[in-house]
Design a protein that fits this description.
Layout: H1 2-19, E1 23-30, H2 35-48, E2 55-59, E3 62-69, E4 72-79, E5 84-90, H3 93-100, E6 105-108, E7 110-111, E8 114-115, E9 117-118, H4 120-130, E10 146-149, E11 158-165, E12 170-177, E13 180-187, E14 191-193
Antiparallel strand pairs: 1-5, 1-6, 1-9, 2-5, 3-4, 7-8, 10-11, 10-14, 11-12, 12-13
Length: about 190
C-alpha cells in the first residue's frame, strides 16, 4: 500500500514539475524497429482513452536516402534516430501514463521519470530535414579527380572524372580497359575519391 502511495506521489510531483511546460515535444525511447508499431498503438490509445486534448502529434524522424542495389538506384526511407519517437503533448499524470504504458515504449528521455522537452528549433530542423522530397546528391569530386569504382560491373577499376552531372547524380569516368581509355557513366554512389 505504501509503495502505491509513493508511486502516486512521485507521478504527482512529476506532473507538477512539467505541467508549466504546456504543449511541447518530448522524445520517447522505444524498442528499435518498433517505431511504427508504437505510433499505431499510441494513436489507438489516445483515441480510446480520450486524450486528444493532451496528446497531439506523433513523429518518427526519417529521411529519404539513395541506395544502390543490384546496380539500380533506389530511394529508401531511413530513420534518423532508430529507437526514438517524438510526441507533442501536455504532460499530466494521465497523459504521461497513457504514453509511458504504450506497448514497446521503454520510457521518456529526461531525468528520472520527468520527461525533458526538446526545443521548438530542434523540431523545426527535423521537420525541415524530413520534408526534403528528393535526397540531394553529395559529391566531393570534380573534373580531373582520380576515383575508384566501388560498385557495379567496373568495380575496383580506377579512372579520372571527365564529367559531373549533379542534377542527375551521374558522373562520367575515363577508365583504362583492354589497353584503351573508355568513358563509363556511373552513379555518384558507385565511386570513391582517391
Amino acid at each position: 500500500m505504501a509503495f502505491v502511495f509513493i508511486r502516486g506521489l512521485a507521478s504527482f510531483n512529476m506532473a507538477k514539475q512539467t505541467l508549466h511546460q504546456g504543449r511541447r515535444w518530448y522524445v520517447l525511447h522505444t524498442y528499435s524497429g518498433y517505431e511504427e508499431n508504437v505510433e499505431k498503438n499510441l494513436k489507438q490509445r489516445i483515441e480510446s482513452m480520450d486524450m486528444e486534448d493532451k496528446i497531439y502529434n506523433i513523429l518518427i524522424p526519417s529521411e529519404k536516402k539513395i541506395r544502390i542495389k543490384n546496380g539500380k538506384r533506389k530511394v529508401v526511407e531511413e530513420k534518423i534516430f532508430p529507437g526514438y519517437v517524438l510526441v507533442e503533448m501536455i504532460v499530466t499524470d494521465e497523459s504521461w501514463y497513457v504514453v509511458r504504458n504504450t506497448p514497446n515504449v521503454t520510457g521518456f528521455i529526461g531525468t528520472g521519470t520527468i520527461p525533458t522537452p526538446i526545443s521548438e528549433k530542434e523540431v523545426k530542423e527535423l521537420q525541415k530535414r524530413m520534408g526534403v522530397e528528393e535526397p540531394k546528391y553529395k559529391v566531393d569530386v570534380s573534373e580531373g579527380s582520380p576515383v575508384r569504382i566501388i560498385d557495379g560491373p567496373f568495380k575496383n577499376l580506377e579512372g579520372k572524372v571527365i564529367n559531373v552531372d549533379e542534377s542527375k547524380g551521374k558522373i562520367k569516368v575515363l577508365v583504362s580497359m583492354f589497353g584503351r581509355e573508355t568513358p563509363v557513366e556511373l552513379d555518384f554512389l558507385q565511386i570513391k575519391k582517391i
